# Entry
Amino acid sequence: MTYAAPKLRAVPDLDSPADGLIRAPKELQIQLEILRIAAAVAVVLLHVAASVLSDRSTTSVQWWAGNIHEVISRWCVPVFIMISGALLLDDHKPFAPGQFYRPR
# Structure
């Protein structure tokens, strides 16, 4: 009995526009993923800090610590919006608002 290795299929390149989508270069995709992970951690920190702020008086050390954590993590929401914009918009195609919003 002989063993035949399975034939490997070619994996399409992520940067190829075969499906009609233009994708960001791989370096930019990696950077955006790292930024997305950091923003997700900041969102969790923001929500934890909000629960600390609502339960304490403004003169306590815990309230001030929660306030500082909340201020430090406020950047996360605009970053998520900017990442979405960077991945949705394309420089090579004209932008028509009707075509953009109709499928959404």
DSSP finds four helices and no strands in the chain. The CA atoms of residues 97 and 103 lie 11 Å apart. The helical segments are 26-55, 61-72, 76-88, 97-101.
